[in-house]
Input
Amino acid sequence: MDGVLNINKSSGMTSHDVVLHVRRMFKEKRVGHTGTLDPSATGVLVLCLGKATRIAQYLEAGEKEYQAVLRLGVITDTLDAEGRVLETRTYIPPDRSRILDALQRFTGNITQIPPAYSALKIGGVPSYKLARQGKALPLKARQVIIHDIQLISYDDPWIKISVRCSKGVYIRSLCADLGEAWGCGAHLANLVRTRSGRFRIEEGATLDRLSNYNPEELNAALVPIDNALDDMPAITVNESDSIRILHGNRIEKTANAIGEEGLMVRIHDEAGRFLAIARKGSGILKPEIVFS
Output
């Protein structure tokens, strides 16, 4: 089976656990996810099956949205509720204006240090494995984008926020950094991913629900590869250009191929068939992935 599956992940499962369940359920060995969710986190986990595994990098690059609950005054080694408590602080609860001010300061292009308990590799070893052995090494800060943070509710010591951000943002790190900005410390108590690219939690299927589907219903749950990329512009090419594209050859930019250089586009033939993903260059379209 080829397509993209929007899973509404339950708490307690690793992303790899979900992949294994889907492999067995769909009888498809080629299954991968497009962005890890921690075991305690819930919500949207996008999986690619069959030929769709070839587009995982494009789906992973999409915007993410989360709802997060912070617990003020308690700092843990993992930056979430699963970790060991390192410090409990006595503090004066920040007022609403201080909370909003910090949320604004952490919006935009920011520098973020990933948590030690993460899957990022140091010398080929996942950082979390080193951390569990007491050998955690400092991870390099990196630039990420947080497009928007909204305050949903505040009832000390609990703060609930929504976050819209780029790939690569660690919400655990964001919560810890916000806690330091308020002077009280904080950790992530609960996390729900509500959107990944075009895939929303309202449209996601739980593994329990999928387990009751017959093969036809399972196939219907998959989003076709073309549809999964519908945020990419689509360009229709003629027969001769279709043949060149299918052979992996570049073509001259067609009249309807608008947009800036470097833009990724979907290529269709005149019958509407999805042929390839191409990158726009100077006067050309160069296929990056071809679907025969």
The CA atoms of residues 51 and 191 lie 31 Å apart. Residues 15-26 form the longest helix (12 residues). The chain has nine helices and 18 strands.
